[in-house]
């Protein structure tokens, strides 16, 4: 799992665009549109974690990525205006 210049890193505040191929299989909104992809990956923290990638506006490209470490810590990433820099928009722990 590559994301820009390294693994998905919950410790960073920004990143390049996600390097994985977006292949959604889940209809998260219940509207009949398959818009979300869920997979496990090695996070830059060294832990394996869950990645949830979603296409919120339906244009076929991912525009929100949330990473969950197995201990419940999560980080949400969203792209800036030109999609070249993604920033952390939320952090927390479940
Ligand atoms: Ca989109």
UniProtKB/TrEMBL annotation:
Residues 23-93 form the DUF6802 domain. Pfam families: DUF6802. Residues 1-27 are annotated as: Disordered. It comes from the Bacteria. InterPro entries: DUF6802. This is DUF6802 domain-containing protein. The lineage of its organism: Bacteria, Bacillati, Actinomycetota, Actinomycetes, Mycobacteriales.
């Amino acid at each position: 799992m590559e994301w820009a210049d390294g693994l998905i890193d919950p410790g960073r505040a920004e990143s390049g665009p996600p390097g994985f191929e977006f292949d959604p299989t889940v209809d998260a909104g219940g509207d009949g549109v398959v818009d979300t992809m869920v997979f496990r990956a090695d996070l830059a923290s060294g832990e394996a974690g869950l990645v949830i990638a979603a296409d919120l506006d339906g244009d076929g490209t991912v525009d929100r990525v949330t990473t969950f470490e197995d201990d419940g810590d999560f980080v949400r990433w969203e792209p800036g205006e030109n999609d070249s820099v993604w920033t952390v928009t939320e952090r927390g722990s479940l």
